[in-house]
Amino acid sequence: MLTVEQIARRVQELSRQISRDYAAADELVMVGVLRGCYIFLADLSRALTIRRRIDFIAVSAYGQQVYPSDSLRLIMDVRSDLAGQHVLIVDDILDSGLTLNYLTHLLGARNPASLRTCVLLRKPGRLKIDITPDYIGFDIPEVWVVGYGLDCSDRYRALPYIGQVDRLI
Ligand SMILES: O=P(O)(O)OC[C@H]1O[C@H](OP(=O)(O)OP(=O)(O)O)[C@H](O)[C@@H]1O
Ligand code: HPA
């Protein structure tokens, strides 16, 4: 679906935009949403030209419910105090929107100086919640995608490109 070159070009564009937008800020705290964010965050954070810190958070759907679940739980919190910080949540994909919605409420309650969101991919046709990330790499169709950090049953994350797999979503 997306080649190595297309992804690299878009990540550079996003990093330029983010670097411009936060040029006046002392520092940006990038909060990656594990596990899918790990490659995108690595590439994006290295391309930025501003001061940044990296932190991680992890959430999981409750129990064995079929994805996407309506209830999420925090399984690993960030290490840093986000009060007064410029925070950018970075995730690989916005699908139903439940994860990003949960995290913006959770982290928004910690009094950051600002809170924005960045996703590499968005499936506009699958949104269950009205949420618009501040930075979006690509809008994609309603199919299951893998690679560049994204998995299918924990496989294919390390593929350098983004591909589509046949799977009911
Ligand atoms: O918009 P949503 O419907 O909430 O889906 C998006 C979330 O789903 C995936 O994570 P997942 O819970 O599969 O965990 P993973 O990152 O460990 O693969 C993805 O990395 C996003 O965090
Ligand atoms: O299409 C997808 N691929 C991998 N992980 C995901 N999490 C939500 N949607 C997807």
Automatic annotation (TrEMBL):
<dbReference type="InterPro" id="IPR029057">
    <property type="entry name" value="PRTase-like"/>
</dbReference>
<dbReference type="GO" id="GO:0005829">
    <property type="term" value="C:cytosol"/>
</dbReference>
<dbReference type="GO" id="GO:0052657">
    <property type="term" value="F:guanine phosphoribosyltransferase activity"/>
</dbReference>
<keyword id="KW-0479">Metal-binding</keyword>
<dbReference type="InterPro" id="IPR050408">
    <property type="entry name" value="HGPRT"/>
</dbReference>
<dbReference type="InterPro" id="IPR005904">
    <property type="entry name" value="Hxn_phspho_trans"/>
</dbReference>
<comment type="similarity">
    <text>Belongs to the purine/pyrimidine phosphoribosyltransferase family.</text>
</comment>
<dbReference type="Pfam" id="PF00156">
    <property type="entry name" value="Pribosyltran"/>
</dbReference>
<comment type="pathway">
    <text>Purine metabolism; IMP biosynthesis via salvage pathway; IMP from hypoxanthine: step 1/1.</text>
</comment>
<keyword id="KW-0547">Nucleotide-binding</keyword>
<dbReference type="GO" id="GO:0004422">
    <property type="term" value="F:hypoxanthine phosphoribosyltransferase activity"/>
</dbReference>
<dbReference type="GO" id="GO:0000287">
    <property type="term" value="F:magnesium ion binding"/>
</dbReference>
<dbReference type="GO" id="GO:0000166">
    <property type="term" value="F:nucleotide binding"/>
</dbReference>
<dbReference type="InterPro" id="IPR000836">
    <property type="entry name" value="PRTase_dom"/>
</dbReference>
<keyword id="KW-0808">Transferase</keyword>
<keyword id="KW-0328">Glycosyltransferase</keyword>
<keyword id="KW-0460">Magnesium</keyword>
<keyword id="KW-0660">Purine salvage</keyword>
<feature type="domain" description="Phosphoribosyltransferase">
    <location>
        <begin position="5"/>
        <end position="151"/>
    </location>
</feature>
<keyword id="KW-0963">Cytoplasm</keyword>
<dbReference type="GO" id="GO:0032263">
    <property type="term" value="P:GMP salvage"/>
</dbReference>
<dbReference type="GO" id="GO:0006166">
    <property type="term" value="P:purine ribonucleoside salvage"/>
</dbReference>
<dbReference type="GO" id="GO:0032264">
    <property type="term" value="P:IMP salvage"/>
</dbReference>
<dbReference type="GO" id="GO:0046100">
    <property type="term" value="P:hypoxanthine metabolic process"/>
</dbReference>
<protein>
    <recommendedName>
        <fullName>Hypoxanthine phosphoribosyltransferase</fullName>
        <ecNumber>2.4.2.8</ecNumber>
    </recommendedName>
</protein>
<dbReference type="GO" id="GO:0006178">
    <property type="term" value="P:guanine salvage"/>
</dbReference>
